[in-house]
Amino acid sequence: MSEDVFKKIVSHCKEYGFVFQSSEIYDGLSAVYDYGQMGVELKNNIKKYWWDSMVLLNENVVGIDSAIFMHPTIWKASGHVDAFNDPLIDNKDSKKRYRADVLIEDYLAKIDDKINKEVEKAAKRFGESFDEAMYRQTNPRVLENQKKRDEVHARFAKALNDTNLEELRQIILDCEIADPISGTRNWTEVRQFNLMFATEMGSTADGAMKVYLRPETAQGIFVNFLNVQKTGRMKIPFGIAQIGKAFRNEIVARQFIFRMREFEQMEMQFFVRPGEELDWFAKWKEVRMKWHQALGFGSQKYRFHDHDKLAHYANAATDIEFEMPFGFKEVEGIHSRTDFDLSSHEKYSGKKLQYFDPELNKSYTPYVIETSIGVDRMFLSVLSAAYAEEVLEDGETRVVLRLPSALAPIKLGVLPLVKKDGLPEKAREIIDALKFDFKCQYDEKDSIGKRYRRQDAIGTPYCVTVDHQSLEDNTVTIRYRDSMEQERVAIDKLSDIISDKVSMKNLLKTIGS
Q: Would you say 223 and 206 are in contact if contact means Cβ atoms under 8 Å apart?
C-alpha cells in the first residue's frame, strides 16, 4: 500500500463522517482531530472490544477511570518532568523542525527497502529455485547495504541509550541525511524538548499551582494501586485497565491521526511477583497479538519489534507493529516496567505502596507488565486494513470498508425500494424491531445501487431491501457487503441472522478460548 492510498483513506474519512480536522472552520488546529458520526461508532466499538477482552475475559483484571489533572509531583516521580523529551533538530533553510531519531529511523528504513527490492528482483529472476536466506548471506550488494545498516544502527542505538545529542547529529551528517523539503543538510544542533502541556490550577496568580495535562494514563493506575487492591480484595497477579485521554505537545505531529497532540490510550498495568515478570511479559505478548489477529486482517500484517532503547524503568519492551500504508508502525507497546513506578511514588509521596503476599507471608513492591495501545492508531490500522477499491464485472469501481462486523459503525442498512406504497412504513417497522439489538440506518434516497455503494463505503456488513413482495409474504432481500450476494429471507429471521454475525461475543470467543 502506498502514500497515494493513504491520501485516499484520509479523504474517505472526511467524506463519510469518520474523522474531521478539529476547528476546521477556523482553519483547523494542527495535529488535533474530531471523530464524526461514523468515526465515533467505530471508535467506541474498538474500545468495547479492548475493554471486554480485558475485564470480562480476565477475572483478575478490573477497570478504573482516573482524572486527567493530577498532583504535579506525580510527574516528577514518574520521570516525565526530567526525562520526557524528544531530540529535535531544525533545518536552517526550510525552517522546519524534525525529530532527530525519526530522521535516522527513516534512513534505516530506506536501506531496508533497498535490500528487500534486491531480494524481490532476484526472486522474480530465479523463480521457484530461489533460496532467499542464501541470497541474503552471499549477494555482495545485499551484504554491503546490510553492513552499512548494521553500523549506523549500532551507533544510533548507543547514542539513544547514552542520550548523546552530538552523536545523533553526527550520524545525520555522516549519513548525509537531507531535509525532505529544502533538500539541504544545513542542520542546527540537536536539543531536548519536553512534551508535557503545562497549565495552572488555582484562583489567584500567587496561589496558582503548576499542573500538567497527563502525557499518559498509566500513572493514574499506579497511584491508585492500593485503593483498588484493598477495596477489591485483589490478589497478585492482577491487572488494572483504563481508557482515557492523554496529551503530548508533539512538535513533529504528522500522518493524520497516527501522531496527535490529544489522543486516547487503552492501558492495562498487570501487577506480578518480582522474578516472575519476564514469564508474564511473554504471556501478555502472546495474548495481545492474538487480540489483534482475531480481527482477521491476516497475520502477515503484524510483527513484534523489540526496543533498541529501553526506557529508564524497563527490563524488557516490545511493540506490536501493524503494516500501515506508510510502512510497519507501532500500535501497541508491551513493557516490563519492573517496580520502578510504585517504588518511585513510594519515595516521593512518603506512603507505603507494598503488597502483603499471604502465600509468601511477606510484603514486597510488585513488578508491573504494561500493555498500552493507542485508540487512534488502532482506529487507523483497522481503517487501513479494511479499505479496498474493487473493479466490478460491469467495469464500475466500488470503494468498500471490509470492517470486522462487530466493529462496523452501522450493522444493517434498511432500504425501501421506492418511497411509496407502504414500503417506507414496512422498512421503519423492521428498524423499530431491530434497533434494540444493533445500530441500523434507514436510507430511501437515490437508486438502490447508489445506496448499496454508500453502505459499502461506511462498512455496513448487511443491507435489506423492502419491496412489494415484502408486504405480501413478510420477506426481504438481504445483501452481504463482502460477496455482494443476495438472498430472500423472512423478516422474523433477520435478528438471528445478523446478531450472530455482528456480536462482540463471538469475536471475544475467538480470543477467549
A: no
| Beta-strand pair 486-490/198-201 | unpaired
Nearest to 342 by CA among 236, 222, 221, 218: 222
Q: What angle do CA 65, 357, 223 make, to 5 degrees?
A: 25
Cell triple for residue 281? Answer: 511479559
- CB-CB contact of 240 with 86 (8 Å): no
**Residues 265 and 217 sit within 8 Å (Cβ to Cβ):** yes
Whole-number Å distance between alpha carbons of 341 and 380: 30
**Bridge partners, residue 320, by sequence:** 304, 332
Nearest CA among 266, 271, 185, 257 for reference residue 226: 271
- Nearest alpha carbon to residue 161 among 101, 99, 105, 103: 101
Alpha-carbon Rg for the chain, nearest whole angstrom, is: 26
Gap between the Cα atoms of 414 and 425, Å rounded:
11
Judged by DSSP in three states, 475 sits in strand
**Residue 10's Cα: distance from chain center in Å?**
16
Domains observed in the chain: 1-68+217-391 (3.30.930.10), 86-192 (3.30.40.230), 400-512 (3.40.50.800)
User: 202: phi > 0 → left, psi -120 to 50 → alpha, else beta; which?
Assistant: left
The pTM assigned to this predicted structure is: 0.83
DSSP-assigned beta bridge partners for residue 98: 89
Per the DSSP assignment, residues forming a β-bridge with 477 are: 465, 488
Instruction: Measure the CA–CA gap between 70 and 198, rounded to whole angstroms.
Output: 12
Query: How far is 416 from 448, CA to CA, in rounded Å?
Result: 9
35-49, 113-127, 304-318, 345-359, range with the lowest pLDDT:
304-318
Residue-wise pLDDT tens digits, 132-183: 888 888 999 999 999 999 999 999 988 888 888 999 999 999 999 999 889 9
